[in-house]
Amino acid sequence: MQLTEGDFHRRLAATPDVAAVLFTAPHCGACRAWQRILPDALAGIAGHLYEVDIAEATGVARGYDIFHLPTIYLYRDGCFHAELQCEARRDAIRAAALALLAKAAQEEP
Questions:
Q1: Do the Cβ atoms of 90 and 40 come closer than 8 Å?
Q2: Which terminal residue of the chain, N or C, has fewer Cβ atoms less than 10 Å from its own Cβ?
Q3: Whole-structure pTM over 0.90, yes or no?
Q4: Structural domain of residue 26, as residue ranges?
């Protein structure tokens, strides 16, 4: 589901449990790979998967200092929890997400 400049904060704040937000750009090959693998990799972990096209939501991207794509953030009950950084492999994503969610929330970027 796409998040836009106008609904990013409102929709995330209203999202219960765990959500993943994938920041992408239209011509990013790595972004397309993550788009394909992320739903399956986070099945049973994140109940919601959102995408933000930084070409359209430039204010959100600037607000979070998004420079490297793709960038994946995990949210819990509408609040930032952690940035997911790992290889684009199902098992690596699952392990990294579970490890991050088992820890205390990080400070929002």
A1: yes
A2: N
A3: yes
A4: 8-102
